[in-house]
Amino acid sequence: MSTLSPSLIARAKEVDLPALAGRYTRLRRWTRSEYAGPCPFCGGRDRFHVQAQRWLCRKCTSGRWADAIAFERMRTGAGFRETVSQLANEPILDPLTLAQAPAAEYSNEPPGEAWQKRGRALVAQAAGMLWSGAGVMWRRWLRGRGITERTARLARLGCLPDRRYDPPEWWGLPREGDRPKVWLPEGLLIPCFTRDHTLWYLTIRRLNTDRGKYVRVRGHRPGLYLGDSALKHQIVVITEGELDALLVWQEVHHLPVGVATLGSATACARGRWAERLAGKRLLLALDADAAGRTGETRWLEAYPSAVPLRWPESSKDLTEYHQHGGNLAALIQAHL
Ligand SMILES: [Zn+2]
């Protein structure tokens, strides 16, 4: 068995811990850099405390700080290796900043006006770059994944050729001591809009990095990517990431099937997004790896009638299946 690389373990520990823990307990702001609430494992009122990358419980950890890996292992009972590979697939936040999506507000409201305004401006600018000379490499990369220009334009994809740091005021975010800027690394910009033009989050897909392929821009809120397609259809394919979802959307638009993703292997729908999916028949198309299987188990707990999609083992996800010549529409139809 191969050994886990230190960078993979480091990435697992970089997960947005308040957001992760906030899926299992109600947190409220305790200090500027800390949230508190009932312990997801042993209850109480405020014995559980969480910061950007560490947590403690006065009982469970005897008040000692522990990391995200320890949290997930305690929650799931899974082994170290499985937990690391699962966490390493979660989106990370700007490592320079504290989690800016307070778990207590990790619910139904979109980001504030200033964030949306700045976000929309960035989306427009990045789209301009994608379709200019600066975007050649990313256009080729998208084509290689089977995503057509039409789809990319409809999805308002863009690219950021260079990393930059925005003043937080531009996003309506507080300037916090030693974490003064909003980090926008280089990569493909994927906006999560709903049809009322509300912008919920921005994901940046990076290349050639072992610090996490997906970064969410600080101040984001949980969104159901392409979730509007779930409004129209009774059957909804759930993918792990946005680019798989886009490909499915493109390839099966002639079928009476919606597609959506929370942009993570293991997140499960909550609040308004759970309502959006209530009563639907879900087809689960998560990656064929440990994280995907964990996510699948969670979805099946929440939606017992969901059906896992299965494809040949030679492909790890739907994009690879498509790249290997597989027919996504036929695959999905076979599961209807
Ligand atoms: Zn506890």
Low-confidence stretches: 94-106
Shape: globular
CATH overall fold name of the largest domain: Dna Topoisomerase Vi A Subunit, Chain: A, domain 2
**Treating each run of at least 4 consecutive H or I residues as one helix, how many helices?**
13
Q: What's the total number of strands?
A: 15
Largest sheet: 5 strands, mixed
Order of helices and strands: HHEEEEHHEHHHEEEEEEHEHEHEHEHH
Radius of gyration: 19 Å
CATH class of the largest domain: Alpha Beta
Under the CATH scheme, the architecture of the largest domain is 3-Layer(aba) Sandwich
- Structural class label: alpha/beta
What would you note in describing this structure?
There is one protein chain. This protein is of the alpha/beta class. The chain folds into three domains: 6-88, DNA Primase, Chain A, CATH 3.90.580.10; 113-216, DNA primase, catalytic core, N-terminal domain (DNA primase DNAg catalytic core, N-terminal domain, Alpha-Beta Complex); 229-334, Dna Topoisomerase Vi A Subunit, Chain: A, domain 2 (3-Layer(aba) Sandwich), CATH 3.40.1360. The protein contains 13 helices and 15 strands. It has helices at residues 6-13, 17-21, 68-76, 80-87, 113-130, 136-144, 149-154, 229-232, 242-251, 271-277, 290-302, 318-323, 328-334, and strands at 28-31, 34-39, 43-50, 55-57, 92-93, 158-160, 164-166, 182-184, 187-193, 199-205, 214-216, 235-239, 257-260, 281-285, 307-308. Strands 5-11-10-9-6 form a five-stranded mixed β-sheet, covered by helices on one side. It has a four-stranded antiparallel β-sheet with strand order 1-2-3-4. Strand 2 and strand 3 (43-50) form a beta hairpin. Helix 3 (68-76) crosses helix 4 (80-87) and helix 4 (80-87) packs across helix 11. It is globular, with a radius of gyration of 19 Å. The chain starts with 5 loop residues before the first helix and ends with a helix. Zinc ion binds at residues 39, 41-42, 48, 57, 59-60.
